[in-house]
Write a structure and sequence with these properties.
Length: 263
């Protein structure tokens, strides 16, 4: 086991020895909350996204953040983004893949190939390619990877097959990567959230006439706040989770295990 680091998290603040975290999708929702939390806990943080205005906003909100504009749905773009971060900071300790796309809804029999390519490229190839590109740097720090999956990896709803398949594939990748990267001291885990109050989820809640989000789908009677998921991610990324690898932690208020009430 890797020895825990000496010193408090505050000791790392503003230090060139401070650990470095790359949060893909760190310009919104769960990724932004994670970037904020890791920054508060002493990491130097880089975020990735496609939209320049969101990147600029994240840079204003998180002083010192390194914002990288990239579409992480291809191997080439993922490798270039990781190389830019390692070049900027000289090291990488934590990779969080929090970018993702839900895709257009549609039944399996009718979905066009492009719908599959878009969602699998973004949600599965992107995290795989980013992880592979990060391995040399993570080996040097004996770092950690946390992927943001979804409970859609383990349960099905109509008309969302590419999303569920991408997230199930991400869980499988998490386990295989954990198996292959353990010899380098790299841990790989995933968090599987239920509903989280982020911009795309809020838009959906408003569309279905429930702006507060569904209250009856889990035991806790509410949706999660992004900061609650960020806490799970930050724990898995930290040395407090030094004996956890290959795990997919469900954070859904009990939605996955809740039986529907009898009529
Ligand atoms: N919200 C929920 O209820 C919920 C539940 C379970 C799982 N999740 C998962 O949590 C993750 C974050 O979702 P969220 O709700 O926080 O969404 P969000 O607020 O829309 O954030 C998504 C982030 O990903 C970036 N992104 C999207 N496609 C990208 C691409 N091809 N390349 C690079 N960056 C890209 C976005 O920036 P740009 O658009 O500027 O690229 C943004 O920063 C996703 O993987 C999602 O599947 C969410």
């Amino acid at each position: 086991m890797t020895a825990p680091r000496a010193g408090s998290q505050e000791d790392f603040m503003e230090s060139s020895d401070a650990p470095v975290a790359l949060v893909t999708g760190g310009t919104s929702g769960i990724g932004l909350a994670t970037a904020r939390l890791l920054s508060e806990r002493g990491h130097r943080v880089a975020v990735c996204g496609r939209d320049q205005r969101r990147l600029d906003r994240a840079a204003r909100e998180l002083p010192g953040v390194h914002a990288v504009r990239a579409d992480l749905s291809t191997w080439e773009a993922a490798a270039a983004a990781v190389a830019e971060v390692v070049s900027a900071f000289g090291r990488l300790d934590v990779l969080v893949t929090a970018h993702g796309a839900v895709g257009e809804p549609g039944p399996v029999a009718e979905l066009p190939a492009a719908a599959w390519d878009h969602v699998l490229g973004t949600n599965l190839i992107g995290p795989i390619a980013t992880t592979v590109a990060a391995v040399p740097a993570l080996r040097r720090t004996r770092g950690a990877v946390v992927h943001v999956g979804s409970i859609s990896a383990i349960q099905a709803t109509p008309q969302t097959a590419p999303y569920g398949v991408s997230k199930a594939g991400l869980v499988a990748f998490t386990k295989h990567a954990a198996a292959d990267l353990a010899e380098f001291g790299i841990r790989v885990n995933a968090v599987l959230p239920g509903w989280v109050r982020t911009p795309p989820a809020i838009a959906y809640f408003e569309q279905i006439g429930r702006p507060e989000g569904p209250r009856d789908g889990n035991f806790l009677g509410r949706v999660a706040e992004p900061a609650e998921i960020a806490e799970v991610i930050a724990f898995l990324a930290s040395r407090k989770a030094s004996f956890i690898t290959g795990e997919a932690v469900v954070a859904d208020g009990g939605e996955w295990i809740k039986m529907s009430d009898p009529e």
